[in-house]
Design brief:
The complex is a heterodimer of chains A (407) and B (131). By secondary structure, chain A is mostly helical. Chain A has one domain: Ammonium transporter fold, CATH 1.10.3430. Helices cover 66% and strands 1% of the residues of chain A. In chain A, strands 1-2 form a two-stranded antiparallel ribbon. Helix content of chain B is 21%, strand content 31%. In chain B, β3 and β4 form a beta hairpin. Chain B is elongated and about 60 Å long. The chains are: A mainly alpha (407), B alpha+beta (131). At the A-B interface, α9 and α10 of A face β3 and β4 of B.
């Protein structure tokens, strides 16, 4: 293993752990916003993917995503069961770290992405239907999309799409899937009649802290090396999250009070927005990306509420819309001065990059929304997506899991 | 004759009311955190994007069981301490109580709700048994 670089490997081992921690962080981020009768259910929806995708990815998910390319559409079966995924680096992806580490790092992305979608259907989903949906979604949406954007030979990658850490694969995919799923499953019983207060905002605040720390692993780790690009991605990530937090706080204040929930929501929005751009843009560009992402998501939530749509925890607004802006902004602000392996955007004399970024975003929206809508409809008509009225009234903690969170 | 006083008051008035009651010698009481609605209407809470109205407001419920002779003074004390004049000051309910039994001593009725240094002792209407 002459090519293994211990610095890169050590950094990526840390990043892999940081990204893993984001899923518990997300679980608590979401868990704080639901009613107390559904907190265990909400936590379980996220944690279930740590278990389920932890198996799926080793068995075939990694191979479908990063196996030998078949027609630009899907990876081959050469890495089934992590066959040949060993300590030897795979120079196609990461020449200086063991391929097994690259595969594990990517696994954590495959875990958190479907967990993001759960914010769209909390407090009413039937657990069995959820598990089946999750497995189908990971296989039919995540793995192909991951291959298109990041797999060598994947058609969006070949077109020159810049998506450093998952603006399309993770955030747009999750946001638009949550929207589609919420439209199929329908609103929670009583939605819109009485306002529900989040049952534990401190959980959401704590979850945000874990997410932000984890995001350094997510974005800076996507450099796959302990180098200047990783540092640049980390700084861009922090700057965008910070700028979006500031702007969201101001928006919230102008509308009444600077709510804690608003501040942390803004932070997550800024982090989601900069995900595709980090590693390609300057710190000031990242600041602009975060600052603009805040009003986009803020008013998308308002729009969603006014439409009476119960996309419960605003995955669409906070991840889908923020990262769509982030993808477009990458097409504007990307510069090879930050990352020589990237490309220049519109402001650096390459307008076609903007077109590629928009195309990749739209393809992701249509694909994720469309497949999710069809799969959710099919499951709804066959086994049913919703818990029964009584189960929903009692709360999914007791009816679905036979437990009470607070006794 | 024993009475129970249920006083629903503002959260921020609990300390004042308790101190005022202690000053006149009302000792035994307990408190619930409750939510309810009345003439005050709702309050506005800040959400993720903008604000929303909540119509069940947090209040505190003070429960006191005492002898009938002390009811008027207790009510006057609570009014004095809990009143702001704005909607949302709360309500006081008075109920008859059939019986009170102090578990430690087996005392019943008036005896069971007497405390060292309480209003009855101050007014020379008897003394609680030493604890």
């Amino acid at each position: 293993m002459a090519n293994i670089n211990s610095g890169d490997t050590a950094w990526l081992l840390v990043c892999c752990s940081l990204v893993l921690l984001m899923t518990p962080g997300l679980a608590f981020f979401y868990g704080g916003m639901v009613r107390k009768k559904n907190i265990l259910s909400t936590l379980t929806l996220s944690y279930a993917f740590m278990a389920m995708i932890g198996v799926q990815w080793v068995l075939f998910g990694y191979s479908l995503s990063f196996g030998k390319d078949i027609g630009g559409i899907i990876g081959g079966l050469n890495f089934l069961g992590f066959h040949n995924v060993t300590a030897a680096p795979n120079p196609e992806y990461s020449a200086t770290v063991p391929q097994q580490l690259f595969a594990a790092f990517q696994m954590m992305f495959a875990v958190i992405t479907p967990a993001l979608i759960t914010g769209g259907f909390v407090e009413r989903i039937r657990f069995k239907s959820f598990l089946i949906f999750g497995l189908i979604w990971a296989t039919l949406v995540y793995d192909p999309l991951c291959h298109w954007v990041w797999g060598v030979g994947g058609w969006l990658r070949v077109l020159g799409t810049l998506d450093f850490a998952g603006g399309t694969v993770v955030h747009i995919a999750a946001g638009f899937s949550a929207l589609a799923f919420a439209m199929v499953i329908g609103p929670r019983r009583g939605f819109g009649h009485t306002p529900w207060e989040p049952h534990n905002i401190p959980y959401t605040v704590l979850g945000t802290g874990l997410l932000w720390v984890g995001w350094f692993g997510f974005n800076a780790g996507s450099a796959l090396a302990a180098d200047g690009v990783a540092v640049s991605a980390l700084v861009a990530t922090n700057t965008s999250g910070a700028a979006a937090g500031v702007v969201w706080m101001i928006l919230s204040w102008l509308d009444g009070r600077p709510s804690t929930l608003g501040l942390v929501t803004g932070m997550v929005v800024g982090l989601a927005a900069v995900t595709p751009a980090s590693g390609f843009v300057s710190p000031l560009a990242a600041m602009f990306i975060g600052a603009v992402a805040a009003p986009i998501s803020y008013y998308t939530i308002r729009f969603r509420e006014n439409r009476g749509l119960d996309e419960s925890l605003d995955v669409f607004a906070c991840h889908g819309m923020a990262s769509t802006w982030g993808m477009i902004a990458t097409g504007l602000f990307a510069t090879t001065a930050v990352n020589p392996n990237g490309a220049n955007g519109l402001f650096y004399g390459n307008p076609s990059q903007l077109g590629v970024q928009i195309l990749a975003s739209v393809v992701t929206m249509v694909f994720a929304f469309g497949v999710t809508y069809i799969v959710a409809k099919a499951l709804n008509m066959s086994i049913g997506l919703r818990a029964s009225t009584v189960e929903e009234e009692v709360g999914l903690d007791i009816s679905g899991h036979g437990e009470r969170a607070y006794s | 004759m024993l009475k129970k006083i249920e006083a629903i008051i503002r959260e921020d008035k609990v300390g004042d009311v308790k101190d005022a009651l202690n000053d006149v010698g009302i000792r035994g009481m307990n408190v619930f955190e409750i939510r309810g609605q009345g003439r005050q209407g709702g309050i506005t809470l800040a959400g993720r994007s903008g604000t929303y109205q909540v119509d069940m407001l947090p209040k505190m419920q003070l429960n006191i069981v005492l002898s009938e002779q002390n009811v008027d003074e207790t009510i006057a004390t609570i009014l004095q301490a809990a009143q702001t004049g704005a909607a949302g000051d709360g309500l006081i309910f008075v109920y008859p109580v059939d019986e009170v039994v102090r578990i430690r001593t087996g005392e019943r009725g008036h005896e069971a709700v007497m405390y060292p240094g309480d209003i009855d002792e101050k007014k020379g209407r008897g003394k609680a048994k030493a604890s």
